[in-house]
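Researcher: Let's try something more involved. This one mixes different molecule types, so please make sure each is placed in the same coordinate frame as the others.
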Amino acid sequence: MSVHEPVSAPRAATAGPVPGAGGPGRRRELSPRARIVLLSLAVLVATACFLLLFVRGSFDFAFPRRATMLGAMVVAAFAQGVGTVVFHTVTQNRILTPSIMGFDSMYVLMQTLLVATFGGSVLARTDGTAKLLVQTALMVALATVLYRWLFSGRFGSLYLLLLVGVVIGMAFDSLSTFVQRLLDPTDYDMLSVRLFGRLSTVDATHLPLAFAVCAAVAVVLWRRRHTLDALLLGRQMATSIGVDHKRELTLMLVLIALLVAFSTALVGPMTFYGFLVATLAYQVAGSYRHEHVMPVAFLLGLLTLVGGQFVMQHIFYAGGFLTVVIEFVGGLLFLYLLLRKGKL
Amino acid sequence: MIQLTDVTKSYDETRVLGPVTDAIPRGGITALVGPNGAGKSTLLTIIGRLLEPTSGSVSVGGMDVQHTRSAELATMLSILRQENHVTARLRVRELVAFGRYPHSKGRLTENCRAAVADAMDFLNLGEYADRFLDQLSGGQRQRAYVAMVLAQDTDYILLDEPLNNLDMKHSVLMMQQLRRAADELGKTIVVVLHDLNFAAAYADRIIALRDGEIRHSGTVEEIMRDDVLTDAFDTPVRVHDIDGQLTAVYALAAAPGAAAGARGREGANGIGLREPALP
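Model: All components are placed in one shared frame. Result:
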């Protein structure tokens, strides 16, 4: 360690090595824009492979099915990838994700309670956009109230918060399981169709609405990308530079709850996928700015799903297991980061 | 001017601050001093609208801080707390650029870039501009945060213990730089300091708090007196004039008039404090 910490600029050259310096020499790095372009190309190639290759039998049969699946992947990648990045930003950490904090367990519980209260036929009888919107609104309202309370700063330690989140998620899950036991088999059957969305069995009717919601959220997030950057500084510094922290936190939690609700409805709960994608995005984006990190998270999420599904389906002949593999890898990464860094 | 009117802060039943009524004039450096738990940081964060007072009101430059939009206040008032944690990995230049957010909303103009460069120069951070914050020493990081606050270019600057983590040399440099900011840029700076002698050397006014109340408020000469400081810190303190510089030390023996026994170590707090020989 050098005792001379260069303070006056002119003498800096003679002041010797600076403590903690990683060396000022900067490697030639791809600009964030170039990275986004490259990633987009990779996604395009993967998408083309996924849609067009290895079609056995009728193309007219396979293509619409694959296109539906692709649509669900786009929604999941956006909702989980971008949702997790925004969640990380507003909650000032890079460990917790909406899924780990029980957002999607809450969605499952709400659906279950709905069926338990009104019977399974309510799903069929009242199906349509209006009901979906009401359900989603309810879920968003509850999640926002609960999580805004959690993140209001009363839990000093991140680990306590993580614990509370995991316990809340488990409590929601157990409650759902309990209520599901009480349902009669027909109701349960109708419910489970809603809950256990899988990439390969996506209900196409909700896709247009999901797209619309994602697009609307994307517009809001893009317009607020600089505000999101400022939120990285934490509540106090963000307030000091003029960000209305409480309002932004609430708004972002509303948007995240929206995204999670749609993602869960379409492809089912995925605990570590968002975490995996967001963590990779921070490494790949080469910039802290949300205008770079958010697109990269979305593209990486899509690449993971589309590329993964293609490989799993046509090389390992195990198309249904993609989410399992992603969860496995994501979970390992989560443990690794938690154990290695101790904090993020 | 910063006007405090009957400001109080309570947690549950415990009142930690106030009622406090005082006015901090425009211009110059005002130091908040006092023992631990006196309410210095609480008062500063309330002025900086990071904490809501239980009652009372604060106005800065004529704006009520509780009811003015945060974005509007941010062009007038900036505050830096002791503990700062940024989730993302930022370079110094990027951190300092955040100071321009109230003016540019994230889209830096030429003016902004110039202000960022000036702020970094002002704190001699030029050569660290492209370093990541986690590659800096505690003192360098502290200067980066202060540079961010300067880049914000507000008339009022509130700093919570900016000398934390700084050794004597860098404490002196920091205070000199704040002094320059007050003198050359005409800023009004309110700063929480632990070291009375830094306050005496660099501030224009001192506000001494104790038990959540303002016990004494005045110019350096008015506050740097034996009786005033002894009362404010609830500890026998003696003030010496060393080469024209008022210097406070805690008195080993409290016997009044025991001039020969007035020895002490530098600083208002530290080890070696002996109980006063009072009943």
